[in-house]
């Protein structure tokens, strides 16, 4: 089973960091074609999309949460729940903005070669909508979470 490593440094700032997550793959041919182009042209966007995919499939992965010994598991679950709510709102907003941008990428169609801008915006839209729909269904109690106490800086 693949794992996702999350680090929580502070309860006050809700400092939750996705440190380690699986690389992105898609079974859909159109999506995979876009991913291949994005991976070559912009690896940072590809990493971001891999992170989005990890969030979409959060229930399928084992989640290891590294935290300071002073933070209780109940507080960590509250932080994770708050983070999921914030992520859901963020993805809904980003999906709306990207949906507005997609028609304007048609202007770039006459440029020879693949329409990289369209693929990038479409992939962002696809993963943000998928992330929003997935986060709507996630409850922290249902996640496979393992707690790892470490002294973090």
List keywords for this structure.
alpha/beta, four-stranded mixed beta sheet, 153 residues, 4 helices, elongated
SSE layout:
Blueprint lengths: L2 E6 L7 E5 L8 H13 L1 H14 L5 E6 L5 H29 L14 H22 L6 E6 L4
Parallel strand pairs: 1-3, 3-4
Antiparallel strand pairs: 1-2
Helix pairs in contact: 1-2, 1-4, 2-4, 3-4
Describe the structure in your own words:
The protein is an alpha/beta fold and 153 residues long. The protein contains 4 helices and 4 strands; from the N terminus they run ββααβααβ. The chain has one domain (3-149). The protein has helices at 29-41, 43-56, 73-101, 116-137, and strands at 3-8, 16-20, 62-67, 144-149. Helix 3 (73-101) runs antiparallel to helix 4 (116-137). The longest helix is centred in the middle third of the chain and has 29 residues, at 73-101. The mean pLDDT is 82.
Brief digest:
A hairpin with a 7-residue loop joins strand 1 and strand 2 (16-20). The protein is built from 4 helices and 4 strands. With 153 residues, the chain is α/β, with parallel strands linked by helices.
């Amino acid at each position: 089973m693949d794992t996702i490593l999350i680090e929580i440094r502070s309860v006050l700032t809700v400092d939750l960091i996705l440190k380690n997550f699986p690389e992105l793959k898609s079974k859909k041919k159109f999506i995979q074609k876009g991913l291949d182009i994005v991976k070559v042209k912009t690896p940072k966007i590809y990493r971001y999309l891999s992170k989005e995919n990890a969030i979409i499939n959060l229930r399928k992965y084992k989640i290891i949460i590294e935290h300071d010994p002073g933070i209780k598991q109940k507080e960590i679950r509250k932080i994770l729940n708050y983070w999921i709510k914030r992520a859901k709102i963020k993805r809904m907003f980003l999906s709306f903005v990207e949906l507005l941008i997609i028609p304007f990428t048609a202007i770039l169609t006459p440029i020879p070669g693949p329409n990289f801008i369209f693929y990038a915006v479409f992939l962002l839209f696809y993963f943000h909508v998928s992330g929003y729909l997935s986060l709507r269904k996630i409850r922290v109690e249902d996640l496979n979470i393992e707690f790892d106490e470490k002294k973090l800086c």
